[in-house]
Amino acid sequence: MPETPSRSKATRNDVAALAGVSTAVVSYVVNNGPKRVAEETAIRVRQAIEMLDYRPNAVARSLKTGSIKTLGLVIPDGKNPYFMAVSTAVEAAARQRGYVVLSASSNLDPDVESAHLNVFEARGVDGVLLSSCVQGAALTGQAIPGLPMVFLDRSTAAGINTVGVESRAGAFDAVQHLIEHGRQRIGLIIGEDEYVTGDRDRISGWRDALGAAGLPEGPVEFGDFSLSGGYSAGVRMFARSDRPDGLFVSSDQQSIGVLRAAWEAGMRIPADVALVSFDGIAESAFTCPALTTVQQPIGQLAEAAVDLVLRTAQQSSEIAHLRFSGDLAVRESCGCVN
After folding, report:
1. Which InterPro entries would you find in this protein's record (predicted)?
2. Residue 338 burial (CB < 10 Å; 0-12/13-18/19+)?
3. Which positions ≥6 away from 327 have C-beta within 8 Å?
4. CA atoms within 13 Å, Cβ hemisphere of 185
5. pLDDT digit string, tens, across residues 127-154
6. Per-residue model confidence as pLDDT tens digits over 44-93
7. Are 274 and 183 in contact (CB under 8 A)?
8. Which superfamily, per CATH, for 12-56?
9. Architecture of domain 167-297
């Protein structure tokens, strides 16, 4: 190959000259098409790109292809380990497909969420994945006409693609596991928005399992999906005269707070109250006792969501609601001994 040109910033012409090909061939290799390039030629072009440290002009490419190879992601709480794991998985899935992700947190504020979505639209992202802090029928109002979107952690949304876990079935399995341990009065700790207006699948699963076993519904306490929210709900739960002997907590973050409240109240978990949780964050395996929890397949969810939003961006009009099964990770908080 000829000597490497000495320039501060390499161009496509430089790559073509070094590889001994036309600039069109360089474009075909960089963009993986539209025309096929012989493997031997493609290797020469890639070697030239590496030697020259060539960086294609992303703006020029986006004008030509109509894509900036960028997705937006909005999560409700950037401090929550579950949503941090979702962000990491989405970024990995997007990177494998040649896209980058711009991430933002709404901090549980619908107005901030809407502002992020408007910024992503203005920047011309190829699509947005949204784990919304908005509940109930108002959720569909977050959709922006013409902007490809996928709602995460939702079972359905009118006219919008969704990707989520089978929460109702997962909650059923979790509560049924407590029943198999002989627990008769199984309470619930959940976010108030979920109970009143939100996606109520976890509540329904709790009720389904109790009904199938002929058991009454146990006490319910509300707390936001955080350590402090779980702690406050746990304090109230363990102060009740009808406190439960089993407890389904709707998120691992809440459960960690509940463990603290139980310790302060002199309640032994699982001896006095057996506990099962939901999400499967990494921290759940390191609490004392370790949490039995419904583990969400975050990697699968992320890949499906990225593929779905890209398919939508390619003018697919078919609406899809994709669901994945969670697995009950059995540990110690339910009464099982590993």
Report:
1. HTH_LacI, LacI/GalR-like_sensor, Lambda_DNA-bd_dom_sf, Peripla_BP_I
2. exposed
3. 280, 294, 295, 297
4. 11
5. 999 999 887 777 788 888 888 999 998 8
6. 998 988 888 887 665 555 445 556 689 999 999 999 999 999 999 999 99
7. yes
8. lambda repressor-like DNA-binding domains (1.10.260.40)
9. 3-Layer(aba) Sandwich (3.40)
Residue of 65, 5, 12, 67 lying closest to 34 (CA atoms): 65
Report the C-alpha gap between 336 and 8 in whole angstroms.
Answer: 64
Q: Which residue has the tokens 């029928």?
A: 137
Point out the least confidently predicted range of 7-16, 18-27, 69-78, 270-279.
Answer: 7-16
Does the structural domain 69-165+298-324 have CATH classification 3.40.50.2300?
yes
Cis peptide before 289 (omega within 30 of 0): yes
Token pair, residue 314, equals 């390619």
- Cα angle: 319, vertex 322, 327; to 5 degrees: 170
Of the candidates 202, 189, 206, 191, which has an alpha carbon nearest to the alpha carbon of residue 240?
189
Residue-level pLDDT at 140: 80
* 167-297 and 69-165+298-324 share a CATH fold: yes
Backbone angle region of 100, left / alpha / beta, with phi > 0 → left and psi within -120 to 50 → alpha = beta
Question: 76, 78, 103, 80: which is closest to 92 by C-alpha?
Answer: 103
